Amino acid sequence: MATQKLFVVALAVSLSPTFAFKATRLAARRDVIACFAAGAVALTGPQPTKALVKGSAPPPKMEPKERKCKSIDECEALGEKIKAEAAANERTDFERTKGGDRYRDLVPGSGKAVAEGDTIEIRYRVMRLGTKARDGLSGEGQTIFSFGYGEDEDKVGDTLAVQLSGQNLIPGVGDALVGMQPGGRRRVLVRPERGWRLETGACKEGEQKIDLAGAATRNTATESNLVFKADIGAAIENENACQNKVSQPQPRTYGQKARFGRRFDESLLVELDLVGFADAKKAGLIDPRFERCRQNPFANGCDDGVPVD
């Protein structure tokens, strides 16, 4: 009975005008919210894309290259012609030092010219020959070590003070500095025998014999430098023993020394900048004996890094 009364009351309320109006507003609000939700999903969801797939076009047909010569004789003649043209265009405006080294002035200097015995300040680059250096001086070289340009652990503007006397400089560089003027730049081609390769004792070119169960003959300076012999016939050689490690210029860092150790017996390009003249006392700070003892504190003539007179 009570249940029937509740049903009648609920039916009456639902049929009343006020309740019908509220129900209509509630339904409309739900429809609006559902519409906004659907729009948000449509905007934030993945959008369909239109991919245009285009295949790779076949390569164009290659036409056979025109042959410049039809026989071996014609090809050889053409090669000789190309060599002659390259030689005709080769620069010949180089000079030679008193030791026969080729050099060319890249930047002219001014003022007093350098002479034997002068103390000067220089900057330098030691480089491998460039790929197009037909005359030994042209082209861009690959730097092995340098000083004064800030390319390694040195600073831009650093200079090396050295006196042009004795064995302070390797022969090729010492002769090239003679005649330069302050502010000038000169490039010189230094051959191994005029550079860092020692030409005395066992390092001198000539036939050398090693007595290991018979005479084995060697004919080059690098092969003749034997520092150890074993009964089994093996020989251990020190490849850098024929390198001049005293006369300037010299590599300073470990990386420079490692690179130079593989190239010191080649013809190398050296660019020299003459900064100016210096006091002899300043050059004494880089006495070759001190430099050698600094590199090897217990070498012959050195006592814990100090030269022994």
From TrEMBL:
Leader sequence segment: 1-20
EC number of this enzyme: 5.2.1.8
Alphabetized InterPro entries for the sequence: PPIase_dom_sf, PPIase_FKBP_dom
SUPFAM superfamilies linked: FKBP-like (SSF54534)
A GO MF label: peptidyl-prolyl cis-trans isomerase activity
Domain annotation PPIase FKBP-type: ranges: 117-236
Catalysed reactions, semicolon-separated: [protein]-peptidylproline (omega=180) = [protein]-peptidylproline (omega=0)
Keyword flag Glycoprotein: no
Keyword Isomerase part of the UniProt annotation: yes
One Pfam family, short name: FKBP_C
Keywords: Isomerase, Rotamase, Signal
Protein name in the entry: peptidylprolyl isomerase
